[in-house]
Amino acid sequence: MRVLLTVFAAKTHLFNLVPMAWALRSAGHEVLVASQPDLMDAVTRAGLTGVPVGDELRMGGGSGGGSGGPTAQTFQGMSGDLVWADERDADWERLLGAFTVGCSVQYEFFAGGAMLDELVELARDWRPDLVVWDALTFAGAIAARACGAAHARMLFGLDYVSRGYLRYRELLRRQPPELWDDPVSDWLRGRLDRYGLGFAEPDALELMTGQWSIDPTPPGMQFPLGLRYVPVRQVPYNGPAAVPEWIHEPRTRPRVALSLGMSGRDLMGGDTIPVEWMLAGLADLDVELVATLSAAQLASVPTLPDRVRAVEFVPLNDLLPTCAAVVHHGGFGTVVNVLTHGVPNLTVPAPWWDEADLGRHIAERGAGLVVEPAALGPDSLRDGLARLLHEPAFAEGAARVREELLAVPSPHDLVPAIEALTAEHGTGR
């Protein structure tokens, strides 16, 4: 079968799709990856065939793109409206605002305009049997509708969008007729009308949540929403890289990794956690600290403390098996690497998406600790890492979570289920 994968131009979101793309290709299926032109180098370096659609997104540097798009701070605010600890916090005004701005600004910026037009054109010409779309790239669902293909979302962590949208639909039904306002259906209808496609209100749920979702979230962490989730074990993909020789050199003290991920420095305009604080707190311990930080991230640090090795990039999939602990920002790609290798970990959550909730899930499972923002400082970092290194219960908890992950079907194992679901939902062209 032919499979079209689509994702907006962010390497972290592409990397989340790569293992599934290769599993499908290795099973003999044709695979294309469509995104804005500025992701094509990363696509081809992953060994996949890319098709550029639309204009460059230029997310880097937090500028919100070179085409007049919103800033990283705007994205953070919109995402935050879909993150809540208690359903009572998700009132109608909050969700109406989140989806109004989300549809008109965020979703449209990521995958609207010229990208959507050219993606629909590609889908109608190439005629895929299945479209797999990143969970913020709603153009994929519209393109699938335009060519009659089955379609599935690829999640990248906790499904805040579906949780928020299901709550939104529930609250929408309670609104009096004179206050009825449904910007999501209006946005979807407008996009479908553009391509001569009809829209009925029940279509909105499928277009926002997929006919089914491929879910790489670790067991027990996803929201119980009653949607059709197909679990997959995410195989870490860190991009092409050579493993440095020093990784396997003998060590005289425990090695600890510090990773703040790619999104903060590449997409969101910088990290929210002072790097100088982190190094000051962690380097006091008798450890070898490997800090994966760029020159820009290190600019505020006048002198590297002793026993700190700063490297701009090293593949976590190769570094973490040599580590006794890891300190990280809670991003989904980093969490997958950490849990896959069963490393006790300290989450210092970034504020972009599900970092805090993922950190709390890990802590609840006994595989690590989380430093809440109100408690953040050199002392809390030092104390947390010391506990991870000296209390065996954390290593035992991390090993248990790793065993649970290994029991989830791999991308290779999932291919027959995807083939069956595609046959079930396709139009039989």
TrEMBL record:
A Pfam family per the record: EryCIII-like_C
Top-level taxon of the source organism: Bacteria
Chain ranges of the Erythromycin biosynthesis protein CIII-like C-terminal domain: 276-421
Gene3D superfamilies: Glycogen Phosphorylase B (3.40.50.2000)
Domain Erythromycin biosynthesis protein CIII-like N-terminal: 22-261
Glycosyltransferase in keyword set: yes
InterPro entries: EryCIII-like_C, EryCIII-like_N, Glycosyl_450act, Glycosyltransferase_28, UDP_glucos_trans
Keyword vocabulary terms for this entry: Antibiotic biosynthesis, Glycosyltransferase, Transferase
Family: Belongs to the glycosyltransferase 28 family.
Name the record gives this protein: Activator-dependent family glycosyltransferase
Annotated organism of origin: Streptomyces millisiae
Phylogenetic lineage: Bacteria, Bacillati, Actinomycetota, Actinomycetes, Kitasatosporales
